Amino acid sequence: MNPTVTGCGPQRESANILACGPMVPEAMRAAWILKEEYAIETRIVNVHTVKPLDVATLLEAADETRILLTAEEHQVGGFGNIVAGAMLRNRKNFRQPCSSIWWASPIASVFRAIPGN
């Protein structure tokens, strides 16, 4: 039951957008906007089940880009809190930073969150 990972090429992504349910198309739209308007490559991780959560996939995504963005469907913090809790319980290397940003909608907040922008 691994989440579906959609990327723009091997290891070229600057960030991961984690989404589930109806937020997956919104995350894909955000990824397209980031690529077209800002030349930022992102990876979409379709987390199709929250229970059980595929923590190994999330840890791998965090290790590869160090940036996780969660696309919230209805309340800010629900899905993001689950992801953040799993990351904190399971990360082995706390010396390498990993950003976790809760994103409700505005694409500008996503753009500002990526280092160098």
Protein architecture, described:
- The longest helix is centred in the N-terminal third of the chain and has 16 residues, at 23-38.
- This protein has helices at 23-38, 55-65, 78-90, 107-113, and strands at 4-6, 15-19, 42-46, 67-71, 99-103.
- The chain is built from 4 helices and 5 strands.
- It has a single domain, classed as Rossmann fold (3-Layer(aba) Sandwich), CATH 3.40.50.920.
- A 5-stranded mixed sheet has the order 1-3-2-4-5, with helices on both faces.
- Helix 1 links the parallel strand 2 and strand 3 (42-46).
Strand content: 15-25%
- What do the pLDDT scores average to? 76
Distance between the ends: 35 Å
Report the order of strands and helices.
Answer: EEHEHEHEH
Radius of gyration over C-alpha positions, nearest whole angstrom: 13 Å
Q: Which descriptor suits the 3D outline?
A: globular
The number of helical segments is 4
Instruction: Determine the structural class based on helices, strands and strand pairing.
Output: alpha/beta
CATH class: Alpha Beta
Describe the main β-sheet briefly.
5 strands, mixed
- The count of β-strands is 5
CATH architecture assignment: 3-Layer(aba) Sandwich
How do the strands line up in the largest sheet? 1-3-2-4-5
Poorly predicted regions are 4-9, 100-107
Instruction: Assign a percent range to the helix content.
Output: 40-55%
Query: What's the domain count?
Result: 1
Kindly identify the CATH topology: Rossmann fold
